[in-house]
Design goal:
The chain is mainly alpha-helical. The chain has one domain. It contains 17 helices and no strands. The two termini are 15 Å apart.
């Protein structure tokens, strides 16, 4: 049964790899110095990590699972295993050298604090970017019964209502556990990817001038909201409306990815980055720190604090691309020689056997 499932898998869609590559680049750019104004940073963040929720929803196929428990086991292997294994590695490094190198503020953090953060699904100290894995796991556990029991686009409607409900929901601390608040907030992106899979897969492209102008216009509206809303709207309203603004950009992002596929075909680099995205999430901040130190020593610390926004953008993107390039061989090595860190030992064994 397992062999048949692997053998009959649908062919890989290259445009999804391009979307994941673009999203990962934006995630790295977001974390890379120099820093922008708050509104620009928020826009970068929401065009990075949340787009992965859309891609994950697009790939979700409820027919693959016999029931909820089978789904939980599958997602636990793919999400919780790397969530724990990467934490163990970086927690050991943090205890050995990280606290001392980071300075007094880091040393003031209790040695058991990262463990508490891991168990509550709120990693901050050791692996901050892994909030995404905790959030995705929680989101998928909530979405599965919606997809199982509700027909058509109703899961999308319920997801939007759950997201909007954060406006009136009390500020309960338990909503932060396992990033439940973020899972509810961004679930519309996952639901759009899943409920509108056929539409995005077959109808969204730059093939006609009319549709191209429409996708670009929607993207402009969405980007304008992401940049301006934090400046002019109530913080809570801007926060809750963010997923809908990101959704407006998805047709343009999808059409751009399909254009890249039509122009360049399958990209091994984009595919590898998509496959190793968890490793990219895990090591990016540490590699960024190393690259930042190297840049400061070679070119001077002032390079990381330019006067003009245009210069800052160029420097930020250049450093981010360097970070992506440095992580690339690390991610491939982990994928090939330490698949157990990613919960892929069964897949690896099958590949080696056949």
């Amino acid at each position: 049964m397992a062999t048949a499932t692997r053998t009959n898998k649908a062919p890989r869609q290259a445009w999804l790899d391009y979307i994941k590559f673009i999203a990962m680049l934006l995630v790295v750019v977001y974390h890379t110095p120099p820093r922008f104004a708050v509104a620009h940073e928020v826009a970068l963040f929401n065009l990075g990590a949340p787009v992965f929720f859309f891609a994950a929803g697009y790939l979700f196929n409820i027919a693959k699972f016999n029931g909820f428990l089978a789904f939980v086991r599958h997602r636990a292997r793919q999400i919780l295993v790397p969530y724990v294994t990467f934490f163990v590695v970086f927690y050991a490094l943090w205890l050995a050298v990280g606290r001392t190198m980071a300075g007094p503020e880091e040393q003031a953090i209790g040695i058991y604090t990262p463990l508490v953060e891991l168990l509550t699904g709120c990693p901050r100290t050791v692996l901050g970017p892994f909030w995404f894995l905790a959030c995705l796991f929680t989101m998928q556990l909530i979405y599965y019964p919606l997809r199982r029991w509700l027909p058509g686009a109703l899961p999308l409607l319920v997801s939007i209502l759950l997201s909007v409900s954060l406006l009136i929901m009390p500020d309960w601390k338990w909503l932060q556990y396992w990033n439940l608040d973020h899972a509810l907030l961004y679930m519309p992106l996952y639901a759009v990817g899943n409920c509108c899979k056929t539409w995005f897969g077959t109808r969204v492209s730059f093939d006609s001038l009319r549709s191209s102008l429409l996708w670009l216009a929607l993207a402009v509206v969405g980007l304008a909201f992401l940049i301006l809303a934090p400046l002019y709207l109530d913080a809570g309203v801007a926060y809750v409306c963010t997923p809908e603004a990101v959704i407006l950009t998805l047709p343009a992002i999808t059409a751009s990815a399909k254009w890249l596929e039509s122009r360049f075909g399958t990209s091994r680099v984009a595919q590898n980055v998509a496959i190793t995205s968890i490793t990219y999430l895990a090591v990016q901040n540490y590699v960024i720190g190393v690259v930042k130190i190297v840049v400061a020593r070679v070119a001077g610390a002032q390079l990381l604090s330019p006067d003009s926004l245009a210069t800052a953008i160029v420097i930020k993107v250049a450093i981010a691309l360097a970070v992506m390039a440095v992580i690339y061989p690390i991610a491939l090595l982990v994928e090939r020689y330490c698949p157990w860190m990613l919960g892929k030992w069964h897949k690896q064994a099958h590949t080696l056997k056949h």
